[in-house]
Amino acid sequence: MRRIQRALFALAGTLVALSLAPLPVAAQAPKWPQHVVRLILPLGPGSGVDLGARLFADKLSQRWGQPVVVENRPGGDGVIALGFFAKAHDDHVLLVAPTSSFTAHPFLYDNLPYRPADLNPIARISNTVVAISVPASSNISSLKELFDLARKEPGKLNWAGVTGALDFLFEGFLKGEGLDLKKVPYRNPVEAVNDLGENRVQVYEGALAIVRPLMQQGKVRVIAVTSTKPDPTYPNLPTAAQAGFPGLTVDGLTGWFGPSDMPKELRERIFADLKAVADANPVIAERLTTSGQAINIGGPDEFQQSIDAQRAQIAEMAKRLGVALKK
Known about the structure:
Layout: H1 2-20, E1 37-41, H2 48-64, E2 68-72, H3 79-88, E3 93-98, H4 105-108, E4 120-128, E5 130-135, H5 143-152, E6 158-162, H6 165-177, E7 182-186, H7 189-197, E8 203-207, H8 208-216, E9 220-225, E10 252-258, H9 264-280, H10 282-290, E11 293-298, H11 300-321
Parallel strand pairs: 1-2, 1-3, 6-7, 6-8
Antiparallel strand pairs: 3-10, 4-10, 4-11, 5-8, 5-9
């Protein structure tokens, strides 16, 4: 009898020990981040994307207990930053970028240093407000007036373009409408807006944040925004659709990306942290709004769907323009 009791006590002790033992390493979620997290940006300091990245980096470094640093790598229509990010192939090196910096690349460049699959969506953060602007010295106050004048005087109006998806979409729209406006290419959008203010070019489509300083000085007039919804800062500005030109509708998407092999679980965890930070710090939404962005947090799947929709829009415009995919 005593032998049986001793055996039962021993078994009970073993079961208790097993219940208190730590889970095997394989069953535990790996700790992340384990060291500094680097955010690669294709735009320079002072841009709306840069502002947003730094706002989140400050709060996430506190949440994660690791430094989160922003690295600006502007130039080359985003190719420089995207190539660096893809080559790093490190889950502690993330990309923060507007999708307009890459969705048109397959139609514009040969031998890109990255593949679309290298950009693994983590979270959509905001929609950059895109404005269509004219010189304040002109008599144009609406999209209808602009396009009526372009039809009346074909080939006489110039429009400022900066290589990228927005440029591509605007050119495709003009083609579809049979409008003859001459494109003046620029490398720097600030230079384009300065020339717009001096009436050296008559139309510009680009980020509202870049146009706003000259708009506030009375040199530039914004006649519409291309976003699906009106800009919360300037609710009286019509959207392109409200002005009667839904073909000009495009939402500027900005978000975070991880490397191609980053697990879905980790991307969801980072997205959850980004959302928690945004929810707990309303000043982030306020600062983004004043920089010409509308905060619009979305997870990996939702962000991927938004990117796919923009790529389809780009492909349609490429077909209209007779531009084929680069080999």
